[in-house]
Every structure is written in C-alpha cells, then in structure tokens.
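W.,

You were right to be curious about this one. When I first looked at the sequence I had no strong expectations either way, so I just let the prediction run and decided to look at it fresh. Below is the sequence, 170 residues in total, followed by the output.
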Amino acid sequence: MLRLLLAAAFATALSGCATLDGLASAPTADAPRVPQPITAPPTPATTGKPSPANPAFIEERARQAYETGRWDVAEGYYLQLTRLNPGDAEPWFQLGNLYAEQGRLDSAQRAYRESLRRRDDARTLHNLGLVQVKLGIGALRESQQRLPPNDPARQDTRELLRTLLETALP
C-alpha cells in the first residue's frame, strides 16, 4: 500500500515532465510495468510561452540583463544570438554597446565592425567612430607619457590632445 501511495505521489510530481499512462492500473509485484513512451515537451505554440531556444526569447533576456547591468549574462545571450542568426547585425551592435559601456574599447570596435559587415547603418558607424576617437585619445596620451621630455613629437602630441579635448567639450 505504501509503495502504491509513493508511486502515485511521484507520478503526480512528474506529471508535467512526461506522460505517465496507466497510473491507475499500477503494476503489482507479480506483473512488471511496461514502460510508456515519453511525449515531447510542450512547444511554445501549445503553452503560449516562448522557447529558450527562440531568438526572440533570448533577445528579451539579453535586453533585460543589459538594462539591469548584468553585463556577463547579457554578453552570453548576445553571443548566443550571433550564433543563432549569423547574418543579423543587431546582436553585434548590442555587443558593441555593451563593450563600450564597460570600457572594453577594442572589443567594442570589433563588434561594431561585425555589425557593419552585416548591415550598413549610420548608428553603428557613429558608435564605431566614438570608440575609435576614445582609442585614439588613449593612444595619444600614452605616447605623450612615453616620449622623452625634449622630443618635439611630445609637444605636438600635447597640442593635438588639447585641441581634440577642447573641440570635444561643448
């Protein structure tokens, strides 16, 4: 009797995972139970919920993670989208934004370039230009620090940086 109750409770707990036909006629100790086929899991069409492998579902999760500052989670989702839809520019654009937000400028530049390979887009080109300006200013600052004090290029670099920064500020 205890065995039958445990089997019924276990079957009820698993009822969402597989079809358990013949539960009412549970096997006795004399009659072995014949395994029943497991049905396919519910599809988005039957449940009304998007599938985790659905690009729209992944895109929504990526957007939520991005908006809440969970960069690593968002990055994983966007990378997954690039694999699911290799010709889609949008995940690459969003990766570029994500990397730029984190200061990962080399990665942002690569992501924007991948996006541009898939779609010629002014927003992407604009963001790529901003990243390249930041990279250029960083390189000029580093070169200014490395150049010997008496090197004329050091003074030229300083003037160029001053001009860039003055024109960049409103």
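Here's what jumped out at me. The chain has two domains: 1-41, 47-168. And, maybe more interesting for your project: The chain has a mean pLDDT of 79.

Coffee later to discuss?

I.
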